[in-house]
Design brief:
This protein has 17 helices and 19 strands. The chain is an alpha/beta fold and 464 residues long. The chain has four domains: 100 residues, Rossmann fold, CATH 3.40.50; 57 residues; 114 residues, Cobalt-precorrin-4 Transmethylase, domain 1 (3-Layer(aba) Sandwich), CATH 3.40.1010.10; 122 residues, Tetrapyrrole methylase, C-terminal domain (Methyltransferase, Cobalt-precorrin-4 Transmethylase, Domain 2). Bound molecules: S-adenosyl-L-homocysteine.
Length: 464
Amino acid sequence: METLPIFMKVRNRPCLVIGGGDVASRKVNLLQKAGARVTVVAPELHPVLEALLADGQIRHLATTFEPACLEGAAVVIAATDDEEVNRAVSLAAQARNIPVNVVDAPELCTFIVPSIVDRSPLLVAVSSGGAAPVLARMLRTRIETMIPASYGRLAAFAAEFREAVKRRFSNGQQRRIFWEDVFHGAIGEQVLSGQEPAARHAMAQVLAGSGELNHGEVYLVGGGPGDPDLLTFRALRLMQQVDVCVYDKLVSKEVMELVRRDAELIYVGKSRDQHTLPQEDINHLLVRLAKEGKRVLRLKGGDPFIFGRGGEEIETLMENNVPFQVVPGVTAANGVSSYAGIPLTHRDYAQSCLFTTGHLKDGTVNLDWAALVRPKQTVVIYMGLVGLPEICRQLIAHGAEQGLPIAIVQQGTTQRQRVVAGTLATLPGQVENAGLRAPCLIIVGEVVRLREKLAWFEPSPGAV
Ligand code: SAH
C-alpha cells in the first residue's frame, strides 16, 4: 500500500483552501460537507465562493499565500493554477506537519482525497494513489450503482439501536449474527424502502422478545416490458434476495434469468381466457407464503399498478397484515413506444396521452369511444390484439379518420420486437397475416408517423 486509508474528523476545525477558482470551490464544498470551518486564501473569488462568503459560510483572506496563513489549520488543500504557489504551500505545510493536498500533484501531497460514494454515515472511498484518478472515478461510479441510495438511512437506523442491541446481546458473535439478520431481513428492507417507523416498531418488539426477526413479506415488483436493462435498481436488488418468486406470463425470460437462482419459482401465468390460477387464489397464495416466513417476490410485467391488478393483491395482503412494498416498473406504454421510435406526446401531434385496455372482464371491447377519438391525442391500448378489428371499426364509426396512423408492437423492447404500422383502415388486414404473438401493444395517433424518422432499435434477425 502506498498510502494509509484513514477518515479524518474535521468537524468544527479550521481548514484552509488556497485558491479561489472553480476547483477550489469543489474542495470547499467537500470540506463543508464534513463540517469543517473553511478559510479560503485567494486574491479573488469564484462567484460560487463569493456567494458562500456573503452567506457567512466561509472566511476569506484576500491575499496571496504566505506561510503565516497556515497558523492553526487542521488540513490544507492547494488548488491554484500556479505551480510555484502550490509548491510553496506544500513545503510550508510539511514543515509544520500539517496534512496537505495539492490538486493534481501527487508528489506534493501528504494525503490523497479519494473518490467517494457518500451514503452518510456510510462512506466508500476509492483511491488509485494518484496513479489513475479516472480509473478510480469509474470504479466509484460502479460502486455507486451497487449501493442503494438509502443505505445511509440503514446505517443511521443501526446507530439508533446500537446500544440497545449491545445490552440485549453481550456476546459479540451473537450480536454480529443479529445485525446480519436485521440488515438482510424484513427490517432492513423496511428501512431501505423508507418505512422507518414500521422498522423501529418491529425492532423494538424483537429486542423486547415479543416479535419475530424474520417474518415474511411480499415485494410487488414491476419487471418492465421485457428488456432486463429497464429494471430499476430496487427491483433487481429484491429479485436477488427472495426465497420464492410468483410470476406470470408477461415477465420476459431475460428478466426471469435475474431472479435469485435458489429461489423457488411459482408460475401463476395467465393467457387470455385461460387463467392458470384465479386472481383470488394468487392473492391468498401470497399471504400463505409470507405467513410461512418467506420473502416473496410477486413479479409482474411492466408496472404493477397499470393493468396489473397490483391493487387487488395488496388489498388482500393488508387485510391479512402481511408487510409489503411496491416497486414500480417501466410500463409497456413507455418502454414499447420508446423502442418502437414513437414518442407518446409531441408538440405538433399530441398534447395528451391516454392508456386504456382493449379487453374487458367479460371479453367484450366496450370503450368510451368518443373520448378516444379526440384530436391531438395519443391512445395506447393494452391487451388489444384480439379486439383490433373491432377497435379500428369503432374508432372510425365514432369520427376518426380512416387514414389515422396506428401501430401494433409485438413483445416490445425484446429481441422479438416486431412493429406493424398502418392506418385504421389497413391495420386489421395487415395483422391478419402477420402472425403476431402476445403481448402486443397498440398505439393510435399522428405520433405513429414519427417512427419512420425516429426508430432506433432493431432486434437482431432470427432472435427467439
Ligand atoms: N402491467 C403491465 C400491463 C399488463 S396488461 C404494464 O404495465 O405494462 C398486459 C398487456 O400489456 C399486454 O396485453 C400488452 O398489451 C401489454 N404489454 C406488456 N408488455 C408488453 C411488451 N413487451 N410488448 C407489447 N405489449 C406489452
